[in-house]
Amino acid sequence: ISQLYIFPDSSAECYISEKNAWKLTYRIGLSESDRTIIRKAIREAIAETGIFEEHPIHAPKIIDRDAQIALATIGLDASYEEKQAWDPDQAKRKKLIAVLQKKIPQFEILMGGMTTIDITHKGINKAYGVKWLSKKLGLPTSDMLYVGDALYPGGNDEVVIATGIETHEVSGPPETLMVIDELLRACT
Length: 188
What we know:
Blueprint (H helix, E strand, L loop, with lengths): L4 E2 L1 H4 L1 E6 L2 E7 L4 H18 L11 E4 L4 E4 L7 H7 L4 H13 L3 E6 L3 E6 L4 H12 L7 E4 L17 E4 L3 H15 L1
Parallel strand pairs: 8-9
Antiparallel strand pairs: 1-2, 2-3, 4-5, 5-7, 6-7
Helix pairs in contact: 2-4
């Protein structure tokens, strides 16, 4: 566990285990003013696009994580099947992102997974985390493996491709665990 690095919120934060406790290594947080601006822009984009009027079962939810604002477009309680069916071609999120990019161009705005939109400081994304870890370990990115579910164009994992890291696309957390298990078996 001493070699495990956790990069939540699109790599806006990093935690490592030290003496059986998680230690914050860095946080590139959003100010309260930034978070207010982002939440307002999200509410306006939702109203302007009208894309949620057709999905009354699960309302969108704005999740304020201090270092990142995430929009769970069909909430947190939607089933996997509902998430798969809601925006399979990403057209709805692309429409929202286009409006958001006009309103808040000073922020990084990317799609995550099947239904989420992630917003952080400009340049703070998963590629930032890859580069930070590469430097910290003294290991070239070409010797690293990145596993993600949003490696598609505009996805929040796509940004890592430019770092030269090898990538492996998965459908979500259960498949990620399978990949980790396979890697651990291969390394022992």
